[in-house]
Amino acid sequence: MSVLLELGEAGDIVIDLLTDYAPRTCENFLKLCKMKYYNFSPIYGVQKGFSFQTGDPIGPDSPDSDGGSSVWGLIDGPSRRFFPAEFHPKLKHAERGTVSMATAPSASNPDERVSGSQFIITLGDNLDYLDGKSAIFGQVVEGFDVLEKINNAFCDEKGRPLKDIRIRHTIVLEDPFENPRGFIEPPESPVPSAAQLATVRIAEDEELNPDEDPEVADKRRRDREAKAQALTLEMVGDLPFADVKPPENVLFVCKLNPVTQDEDLHLIFSRFGKILSCEIIRDKRTGDSLQYAFIEFDDQKACEQAYFKMQGVLIDDHRIHVDFSQSVSKLSDSWRTNTNAKRRKATKPRGFGGSSQLEKRGQYREESRMARGDGRPSDFVFDPNEIKGKGESSRRRYDDRRRSPHERGHERRRSKDGRRHRSRSQDRRRDSDRHRHNRSRSPRRHRDRDDRYRR
């Protein structure tokens, strides 16, 4: 039974749980990890060469913190927030990386200690001081380099790292316990709460430089936040890609008269240059104008000229406002497929692939020579007429194989001089008629037979 703790840039820690010695403590820890209760929990209480503490989702420095709760307290209420600590006589804090639950005296019985959600990981060996005070339930098996980074982190007087180190994610590798009644596992990791974000000091991806200009540091912080927000919009599908920039040949026109049509704007703005698309944004349900539009020019200079000349111009008794567009919707075909198709049609691209510098290459050398019209012989290995004749003979042989022998026996045969001959069945029928003619003595039969042949 193991759990993986992801600590962001610090690295990952894998903890093996001692379910045979502390089953109830291991169950509580596993279910809290499964509920993503520890996500974004800060590392605090760092004592170099001794231990560090975590497990409070908000952190002990925040006034909103309640110190954490067990999984049963989260399900059944505050009355079961703590549970009796499990101390096994064979388990000692003898090795670095020993994982134990933080305990406190019970309110009802001072001789009994209880646990909640906070746990401790040792950073040194032979720490017998913690025996009997922290309930051991696991051991770090991977990630000792992460423990070394936490041990060497710069901390304040309370043992809180100046540069944030937090549990970003928890992954339960194996869980032998059944979920308690009322347990709900979230389908995905929850986003940090406002109280958790308020406790952030220095982000883990931010470099510490005491001599840096405050304005430069503030600009870097804003750029980092903008990049993070853009990445979030890309993940949810609101941006085609995080580093997208708005096109420089598109104008944004607002404060339009509701009666103004697309053709009117196209006619007015076309004097500055060729327009690829001119679209007034309308309500999808009613089709009414929302009084703003996007105009895309073929040339960036034409767009700039229209920006300087059309600001404050009166159109249909409305004084419009013109600015460069900050929309990137035209860069994503998934949103504006029909509009982009009209735009590409207006450009009338030449050549292949939408570029006039590309030209078609013939699949055979003969094709390129025919395009030149030089009339020189082809470079084919076989003569085209010969290939055509072979193809026709092969097709005839294939048709012959498709006919049954009975059909081929009834086929008319041609002689060398081209005269027709009857098939064998027709010859036998003719001989039979002659035989009947010789046997017949009735004039009527002769007359009927002659009429039949004349028909």
From TrEMBL:
Keywords: Isomerase, Nucleus, RNA-binding, Rotamase. Residues 333-455 are annotated as: Disordered. Transmembrane segments: none annotated. It catalyses: [protein]-peptidylproline (omega=180) = [protein]-peptidylproline (omega=0). The keyword Aminoacyl-tRNA synthetase does not apply. Residues 249-327 form the RRM domain. One of its GO terms (cellular component) is nucleus. PROSITE patterns: CSA_PPIASE_2, RRM. It holds the Pfam family RRM_1. It comes from the Eukaryota. The keyword Aminoacyl-tRNA synthetase does not apply. Residues 358-377, 385-410, 424-434 have a biased composition (Basic and acidic residues). Coiled coil: none annotated. It is found in: Nucleus. PANTHER family: PEPTIDYL-PROLYL CIS-TRANS ISOMERASE-LIKE 4. PPIases accelerate the folding of proteins. It catalyzes the cis-trans isomerization of proline imidic peptide bonds in oligopeptides. Belongs to the cyclophilin-type PPIase family. PPIL4 subfamily. This is Peptidyl-prolyl cis-trans isomerase. It comes from Sphaerosporella brunnea. The lineage of its organism: Eukaryota, Fungi, Dikarya, Ascomycota, Pezizomycotina.
